[in-house]
Amino acid sequence: MECQPIIEVKDLYVNFYTYAGIVKAIDGVSFKICRGETYCLVGETGCGKSVTARSLTRLVPPPGRIEKGVILYYPEPGGKPINIMELSEEELRKIRGSEISYVFQDPNTSLDPLYTIGYQIAETMHAHGTVASIKEGIRKAVHILKMVLMPDPETRVKNYPHELSGGMKQRAVIGTSLSNNPKLLIADEPTTALDATVQDQIMDLLRKLRRDRNLTILLITHNMGLVAEMCDRVAVMYAGRIVEEADVYELFNNPLHPYTKALLRAVPNPLKRVEKLESIPGTVPNLIYPPPGCRFHPRCPMVMEICREKRPPEINVKPGHRVACWLYAEKRGE
Ligand SMILES: Nc1ncnc2c1ncn2[C@@H]1O[C@H](COP(=O)(O)OP(=O)(O)OP(=O)(O)O)[C@@H](O)[C@H]1O
Ligand code: SF4
Ligand SMILES: [Mg+2]
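# adenosine-5'-triphosphate complex -> structure
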């Protein structure tokens, strides 16, 4: 099916200005997310998944700064895009939490301990004009909690966060995120803080919501099992760059980049979380002094001279499958 983009990112650069130096966290990232799909960002810790996701609505926290790049958001299929980089803070606030909404890893940081779940959902809806009053919002919150399969929603709507289990809290957060009918849901490790059974339930819920509401999802995960189960297309990130992108079948059956291969080798059990790659030595480099050329070269078993000097180009090996690696460049050095 032809891709109708909902988000298009072109040549994104993000730096963090720390006392230790400038962290070059995102270094020339480009991708698009097609309407209705689940697109995954995967990679080791610190490779730039969250910063990429936050950049989509310019939510990068200080001392971070988007240096360069174009971020286009298409509110309507085939319609005119909005350049997120050109919006005012107020215009951005209207989009965040309504058209594009987030679910983060730890539900405790997303919920306010001082207010009931119902009030928090109602407040989000009221802030974006989805309901005329908090009272109406609280009535609607019961339906939202039903939609996210919260047990006993009539009671839970009156509960404070500490009265809910971890899984229930994350359902409430997902409910809040969906309360203004977003077009794009960005789920950043939404189940990492939860136990395995609850993880499965939340993923089932996301699948159901995607089906029922034609939601587009950007899913960030360490878990290759989830990638296999949930995603249509996958981007593998390493040290602030996308090193490979393909549809999920192609990526699992025909991985090309040495890092992707290592990532898949490191996860014989795809349900295991990737903290560290045991199959290749080293860790993600310090991004204040990233390695020159290919950022993966200090760990790459296939490293060549050119890899140490020049950034590998992105090569489209076949439609929908691209890789940034000198092994696949026809004329190395050009
Ligand atoms: N507030 C910050 N200050 C300084 N550097 C930061 C900050 N936030 C992120 N970074 C740096 O940006 C890079 C990318 O971080 P990011 O959080 O996107 O990684 P990630 O892929 O989401 O990792 P994880 O899997 O651990 O969530 C890292 O090198 C990190 O150190
Ligand atoms: S460009 Fe070179 S160092 Fe980088 S992944 Fe490819 S072969 Fe390895
Ligand atoms: Mg992260």
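# post-check
The mean pLDDT is 91.
The pocket of magnesium ion (ligand 3) is lined by residues 49-50, 188 (CB under 6 Å).
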